[in-house]
Amino acid sequence: MSAVKIWTDADVETNPRVKAVFDDIRATRKTDFVNNMWRALAGQPELLEATWARLKQVMVAPSALDPVTKELIYLAVSTANSCSYCVHSHTAAARAKGMTEAQYQDFLAVVGMAMQTNALATAMQVPVDPEFQV
């Protein structure tokens, strides 16, 4: 159960600021679907606007990273942070942007390997090699 209200489309129609963001989400993503993360943020219109603007800047605007790579990075961080919602959302987004099943399996192998070696390095408190320090 959510700790905050999940806004319905009828709720959104009552607030012009929220409606403007939802309209932009729909236009940017070329879909009528607005997911629950945005609906949960709708109760705080200023935070909704700022979060959507920043997300568009990082995840939607063209950059040196391709869209699937961005989603895989987001997915890895979401996994590390134990955000179940984000794992599901960004797995779906990566698939929608062209992630193949083979890429997903490779991604899972890398995440699993990184989690194992990160835990070992942390447990053993391995000192950082001088060559790796900037």
Distance between the termini: 45 Å
| CATH topology term of the largest domain | AhpD-like
DSSP helical segment count:
7
CATH class of the largest domain: Mainly Alpha
Instruction: Kindly estimate the percentage of residues that lie in beta strands according to DSSP.
Output: under 5%
Write the CATH architecture name of the largest domain: Up-down Bundle
Task: Name the poorly predicted regions.
Answer: none
Helical proportion, percent range: 55-70%
Provide the gyration radius in Å: 18 Å
Largest sheet entry: none
Mean pLDDT across the residues is 97
Helices and strands, in N-to-C order?
A: HHHHHHH
Number of strands: 0
The number of distinct structural domains comes to 2
Shape: elongated
Helix vs. strand class:
mainly alpha
CATH superfamily heading of the largest domain? AhpD-like
Describe this structure as you would to a colleague.
The protein is mainly alpha-helical and 134 residues long. The protein folds into 2 domains: 61 residues, AhpD-like; 62 residues, AhpD-like. 69% of the residues lie in helices and 0% in strands. Helix 2 packs parallel to helix 4 and helix 5 packs antiparallel against helix 6. The longest helix is centred in the last third of the chain and has 24 residues. The mean pLDDT is 97.
